[in-house]
TrEMBL record:
Domain of life: Bacteria
Function recorded in the entry: With LigD forms a non-homologous end joining (NHEJ) DNA repair enzyme, which repairs dsDNA breaks with reduced fidelity. Binds linear dsDNA with 5'- and 3'- overhangs but not closed circular dsDNA nor ssDNA. Recruits and stimulates the ligase activity of LigD.
Pfam families: Ku
Organism: Pseudalkalibacillus berkeleyi
Positions of region (Disordered): 252-272
Coiled coil residues, start to end: none
Annotated keywords: DNA damage, DNA recombination, DNA repair, DNA-binding
Family (UniProt): Belongs to the prokaryotic Ku family.
Protein name in the entry: Non-homologous end joining protein Ku
Basic residues compositional bias, start-end: 256-272
InterPro entries, alphabetized: DNA_bd_Ku70/Ku80, Prok_Ku, SPOC-like_C_dom_sf
Domain Ku: from-to ranges: 52-180
HAMAP family in the cross-refs: Prokaryotic_Ku (MF_01875)
Gene name as annotated: ku
Length: 272
């Protein structure tokens, strides 16, 4: 596995050399854009809007647009100076319970591995967090961006998850027409709870697949072989308007199927 970041974790006066590894991967099927006439790949060029000249990377600088068409230039040295003190350190600021962090904050996950001579303090932090049931809240610089993050136990190791800063999470009050108080029918509520109970199970990530990605790959393979793409028939939609009818239909559909018994056969055999 490719090491994407090297540095250390510190909590109190304890410093642990560590390495970060990407914990997830994007499995999206990437499409190329082609010229319709001759099927040649499209090339993208960076062009100046004033002189319409194609630019090399060495000719491009970074700037912040503080007003329309007014920019302040930021040199690489300026950005490096700002991040220099924080680039290689994950400082745990607080320890909290995982249940206190709403999932809306979570962003990306990275496996944490011990660096050189870091096995013992790594194990110490992992075991201490495991026994306390706490997670660490930390700050880290990754690719010139400071992230708030969570350090927690995952399986037999440690995991770092970048999380959004509070001002990056939008206020739900911005969502229009969320009902404040709605008078609910008690029977409808009980049926909705019953439906939830019937659909409740232990979380098993292995039972879920990306059906669209699999279907897209099958279509691509069919095209490669010169075959027709098979289109699955759409299931007819149930014309259910009444909420009670919809709930009852859902409950009936999710009831566990009863196993057939052999009592009838046994009775027939004994009578013969």
């Amino acid at each position: 596995m490719h090491t994407m970041w090297k540095g250390s974790i510190s909590f109190g006066l304890v410093t642990i050399p560590i390495k970060l590894f990407a914990a997830t991967e994007n499995k999206d099927i990437k499409m190329r854009q082609l010229h319709k006439e001759d099927h040649s790949p499209i090339k993208y060029e960076k062009t100046c809007t004033a002189c319409e000249k194609s630019l090399e990377q060495s000719e491009i600088i970074k700037a912040y647009e503080y007003e329309p068409n007014k920019f302040v230039e930021l040199e690489k040295e300026d950005l490096d100076a700002l991040s220099k003190e924080q680039t290689k350190s994950i400082e745990i600021l607080d320890f909290v319970h995982l249940s206190e962090v709403d999932p809306i904050y979570f962003d990306r996950s990275y496996f944490i591995g011990p660096g050189e001579n870091g096995s013992k303090p790594y194990s110490l932090l992992k075991n201490a967090m495991e026994e306390s049931g706490k997670i660490g809240i930390a700050k880290v610089m990754i690719r010139s961006k400071q992230h708030l993050s969570v350090v927690r136990v995952y399986d037999k190791g440690l995991l770092l998850e970048t999380i959004h800063f509070p001002d990056e999470v939008r206020n739900i009050d911005l969502v229009p027409e969320i009902p404040e108080e709605v008078e609910l029918n008690e029977k409808e509520l009980k049926m909705a709870i019953q439906l939830i109970e019937q659909l409740t199970t232990e979380f098993d990530p292995g039972k879920y697949q990306d059906d669209y990605r699999e279907a897209l790959m099958e279509a691509i393979q069919s095209k490669v072989k010169g075959e027709q793409i098979k289109v699955a028939k759409q299931q007819p939609k149930a014309d259910v308007v009444d909420l009670m009818d919809a709930l009852q239909a859902s409950i009936d559909d999710t009831k566990p199927k009863k196993k057939k018994t052999t009592r009838t056969r046994k009775k027939k055999a004994s009578s013969e």
